[in-house]
From TrEMBL, chain A:
Location relative to the cell: Cell membrane
Membrane topology according to the record: Multi-pass membrane protein
InterPro entries tied to this protein: Brnchd-chn_aa_trnsp_permease (IPR011606)
GO cellular component, one term: plasma membrane
Major localization class: membrane
Keyword terms of this UniProt record: Cell membrane, Membrane, Transmembrane, Transmembrane helix, Transport
Organism whose genome encodes this protein: freshwater metagenome
Keyword Transport: yes
A biological-process GO annotation: L-valine transmembrane transport
Name listed for the protein in its UniProt record: Unannotated protein
Annotated TM spans: 21-43, 63-85, 134-157, 169-185, 197-224
UniProtKB/TrEMBL annotation, chain B:
Entry annotated with the keyword Membrane: yes
InterPro entries, per database record: Brnchd-chn_aa_trnsp_AzlD
A Pfam cross-reference name: AzlD
Lineage, top ranks: unclassified sequences, metagenomes, ecological metagenomes
Identification of the protein by name: Unannotated protein
Residues spanning the membrane: 30-50
UniProt keyword list: Membrane, Transmembrane, Transmembrane helix
Length: 233, 100
């Protein structure tokens, strides 16, 4: 996808980074306001909502944890489900690390900002200088919008009757928006359907929140063709 | 939502990021591990959509939330801006509750 437009000029052209980074920031801003509202309504507080966004800083995981707590799930299932969702950030780290060399302190700091948006923006750039610039510009945009949005949502959140205005549906609506771009491949579509089926099939029988954790098992279908090839007794 | 949940989640999420970025770094995950981790979000997000729309505690039920979900799916499919998708989905469920 990248490296298709190689321009051999001396100075590095940084055009086309700030605009998309701000556009991503605005989308994230809306998620963040929703998150703030839902978090305080799930028994969180403004400081807890802010701690989540400042420290956890990975949107789907934060929504997932609050969603499970809001439904009456256990703390363990909320945390495990959220961390399973956050495991992809480890892969993103491997993908962006070569473009962000530096001291240990620098790399540990950069790791905190390694999420969907920064990884996507970094990998599509066509030169090392642009990749590095895109990572940090996007990180600043997303971190700013995410935390300001969370603060706004958390401050106004308690004044809403979430049921009355249908705000509880902000959870599934946000998840639909998050999952849509992931369903590009057949395997991802099967994983999505499988996850949905596991959740509905197990909900009556296992502790609240556990179906979310259990649905991750479906991701093992990634191994199906590989396993067939590698069956050595 | 206890402080324990907030802090354990913060630490866990950070360690996952550092594990990939700093610990694995220039090396690679085994491709099978990478393939499995890459599919987890699709499975979990779809499970979360089901939980938040069609369950109440241990019960399965279809109610006003389903209307909001349909609106959200159509909105995302038609590439409606995200803020509008969330507003329309919530409004659809709120209105359905008000009139039913």
């Amino acid at each position: 996808m990248d490296a298709q437009h190689e321009h051999a000029h001396e100075g590095v052209n940084y055009d086309g980074i700030v605009g998309p980074a701000l556009a991503l920031g605005f989308a994230v801003f809306i998620f963040a306001i929703s998150f703030g509202v839902l978090c305080v309504n799930a028994g969180g507080s403004v400081p807890k909502a802010m701690a989540m966004s400042l420290l956890v800083f990975t949107g789907a995981s934060q929504f997932s944890a609050v969603s499970v707590i809001a439904a009456g799930g256990t703390a363990v299932s909320a945390v495990v489900g959220a961390l399973l969702l956050g495991s992809r950030n480890a892969i993103y780290g491997v993908a962006v690390a070569p473009w962000l060399p530096g001291s240990l302190k620098y790399r540990v700091a950069a790791a905190q900002f390694t999420i969907d948006e920064t990884t996507g923006m970094t990998l599509v750039q066509n030169s090392p200088a642009r990749k590095k610039r895109a990572f940090w510009v996007t990180a600043a945009s997303i971190y700013g919008f995410w935390n300001v949005g969370t603060l706004i949502g958390a401050l106004v959140g308690n004044s809403f009757d979430t049921q009355k205005y249908g705000l509880d549906v902000a959870f599934p609506a946000a998840f639909v928006a998050m999952v849509a771009p992931l369903l590009a491949t057949r395997k991802a579509q099967l994983a999505g359907i499988g996850g949905a089926v596991v959740c509905l099939a197990t909900t009556p029988f296992v502790p609240i929140g556990a179906p979310i954790v259990m649905s991750a098992v479906v991701a093992l279908i990634a191994l199906v063709p590989t396993q067939r090839k590698m069956q050595n007794p | 939502m206890s402080w324990t949940v907030v802090l354990v989640l913060s630490l866990g999420a950070f360690l996952l990021k550092v594990f990939g970025f700093v610990v694995i770094g220039d090396r690679k995950f085994p491709p099978q591990v990478e393939a499995v981790i890459a599919l987890i979000p699709a499975a979990l997000l779809c499970a979360l959509i089901m939980k938040d729309t069609f369950t109440a505690g241990h019960d399965l039920q279809i109610d006003a939330r389903a209307v909001g979900l349909v609106v959200a799916v159509v909105g995302v499919w038609r590439k409606v801006p995200i803020w509008l998708v969330i507003v329309l989905a919530c409004a659809a469920t709120g209105i359905t509750r008000a009139i039913s």
